[in-house]
Amino acid sequence: MGKLYKPELHVITSGRQELDEVLRMAEAAYSGGMDRLHIREKHRTAREIMEWAEALAGVMPRESILINDRVDVAAAVQCCGAHLAYHSLPVKAARRVLSPGQKVGCSVHSMTEAMEAAEQGADYVLYGHIFPSRSKPGLAPRGTGELKTIVEALSIPVIGLGGIKPENAGQVLAAGCAGIAALSGITDAADVKRAARSYREALDRWKGETG
Prior knowledge:
Elements: E1 8-12, H1 19-32, E2 36-39, H2 46-56, E3 65-68, H3 71-77, E4 81-84, H4 91-97, E5 103-108, H5 111-120, E6 124-127, H6 145-153, E7 158-161, H7 169-174, E8 179-182, H8 184-187, H9 192-210
Parallel strand pairs: 1-2, 1-8, 2-3, 3-4, 4-5, 5-6, 6-7, 7-8
Helix pairs in contact: 1-9, 2-3
């Protein structure tokens, strides 16, 4: 798979912050170089997530917002699209709900899952966790070996997730990823804009080093 011209920086909400905190975080992260924000709030209602998406569209482009699991909300607010988990609607069903042009992404944890998502028509997959991660205590990281194999097998972009920091982001891109996703490294940062910029610079620097 060819790497995207500009490696993407995705940020995923923590599920532990209220809307006012997330608005400040998102605005700062976008200013620092974030490309996509995933609203991943499993404990919130569809109405709450819709209100979050509409509020966030006031501080960053609507086209940069992805909504996890709730395909109905993604369709209602006409954001970038929906990101699916193992328990979400199948890709083909999500397509029937979303508008043409909205994206469908899938979280995957193996070659089998990645191939299935691609065959169903996903626009990209999110693979992890790659490095040790505080959000996955006790689970061994998957590393970049299978990641590289998945990237080579798929014709759609692969975004890396899990324990990625500015200093190891290059390893993920070297495996062929089209970008990375960050959680606490940005959402919990004391200076969110600076943290996002550090990731953004690491992604752009790696691109420059490899031509």
